[in-house]
Amino acid sequence: MKIGVIFTGGTIGSVLDESGYIGPKDGTTFRVLKQYEDEYNEDVQFDAIEPYRILSENLDAKHLVKLFDTIRGSLVTKEWDSIIVTHGTDTLQYGAAMLGYVFGGSKIPIVLVSSNYVMDDPRANGLVNFRYAVEFIKGQYGTGVFVSYCNKGEYPTIHRATRLQPLIPYSDYVASVQDSWYGRFEMENYISNSEYHVMDGQMALFTEDVRVQLTEDAGEILFVHPSVGMRYPALSSDVKVVLHGSYHSGTICVEESLKSFVKETKGLQIPIYLTGLLSGADAYETVQVYQELGIQPLHTSSEIAQYCKLWLALSNGLDVKRIMDCSVAEDWI
What gap in Å lies between CA 134 and CA 212, rounded to an integer? Predict the structure, then answer.
């Protein structure tokens, strides 16, 4: 078996140096691969490349497009049975969602791997994450894009790339929306999630032969998060869609400030989509109000994934309404 490993930097490829700061340095970025080969010495052939080397908080459109092109080119020119992408944990959800919507239809597994600490730190989970990415690949348990990650005190878990929740501040805990993990390894045995399901909207937005573009920034998306006493920002001429977060129960304040904002967006024909409302749950009366105003909830989905989906759609001239109407109608996308 031949696995392509695409290194991009991040904590998994970094070191804490004499300055007291963490960063990717020459000779450290491939460390997890050497640790795996030294520890397990299995009959797996790795082919490693490094299109760029950054800390993932510096991830931007330029690097994402380079990663798209690297993977797309490798699928055509390399005889790889699968691909592992090392990635920083800070923006793991963004990189995973982007790859999920671009390569979700891949016939081979593409698995993202990160580490919560540098690889020579005994607390690091990077080697475990890498090992079970390999085990998932060897077991041929799925195709498309996934994330392999082991939280402290838990089993190594495989997540679908478009389902990751935002990280909790001060925490490196990785989870899928509504705990909808794809599979996990318990005592070396792979256990699939019997409650996991895939909807049609989970499919990739592109075929593998398409060179995907990404605008320099996501300025056409106004991403709004609720807060007590908030004032809605002015709408610039660039904005084409609003993505609105919610409180934990899928609620937002529905007083005059929202009504004035909705009136303005309607006048400019700008749709508003909302994340955070759980499908099938008892809803508050405020939910009824914002739905009657025309705000469309994207039930039970990752807000980061929806943001990435919108950015990709707008950047590549896709029919945003059709794509997001599908998201309105279906869960887990």
Answer: 27
